[in-house]
Structure formats: structure tokens, C-alpha cells
Amino acid sequence: MAYLDFIKNYLPRLSKARGCTEEEIIQLEQKHQLRLPAAYKEYLRLFGKNTGGLLEGFYTTIDEVEQNAATIEFDMVNTEHSHQFKIAPGMFFFGQWQGTVLYFICDGNENPPVYMVESLDDIVQYTNTFTDFVRAEGL
């Protein structure tokens, strides 16, 4: 663990956590036609199938990723907004919290900033890195 070293001491409390295999991560990358950042892949290896309570309620497991993108797509069609927000290549919607969708951009940055879509007209950079997001919201 390089990006999530700070979690080591908490792993005993997250005993139900279950990670993804390398093959599952590769399949996710292929499905979305992008290269996921190293920090996020590290997260998937540890918590991709069951978070064990880390980021509880954030819909961050590999099975929930499709739901996150679908939420944005639904909102783009079914809500009033200025239409300035567009889903761009490389955007990966990895989680959500009470209707707020979280994403990062797969652009070669191995620990990218996390952005929060509160509404399609209100997008903010939430944390400077994916690691910062896990540290702030996960523990």
C-alpha cells in the first residue's frame, strides 16, 4: 500500500472488507475504456467488493460504479440545469452520497483530485487527491 498506508492500523476493524482481483480491475478499465489511477486501484484491491464499513453509504464498490454514472445520466435528462455540465472522456464516477455524485478524471494523475456534483450546475473540487478523500470521509 502506498496511497492508503494510513489505513493499515484500521484494517482489523474493517475485517469484512473484500477487495477486487486484478482481473476485475482490468475488466472495469476495459469496460470504461480508461486507465484507472493507481490510488483508486489500490482502494479497489482492498475494498472493491466490500468496504468493511469504510466509506459506508458512499456506493464505492465495483458493483455500484454503474449506478453512480446512471445517476448523473438520469439527472442530465430529467432535471433543470444550464446544460454546462457534460460527461467528458476520462470522468469516472466512483461514488455518491445522498444524491451528490463523486468523480475523478483519469488523465494520468495517479492520485487525482475528487470532484463533487451537488447539482449539474454546482461542481466543486472536493479534495486535492483521492487519498485525501478516503482519509477525510472514510475514517
UniProtKB/TrEMBL annotation:
Residues 19-136 form the Knr4/Smi1-like domain. SMART domains: SMI1_KNR4. SUPFAM superfamilies: SMI1/KNR4-like. It holds the Pfam family SMI1_KNR4. This is Knr4/Smi1-like domain-containing protein. It comes from Chitinophaga silvisoli.
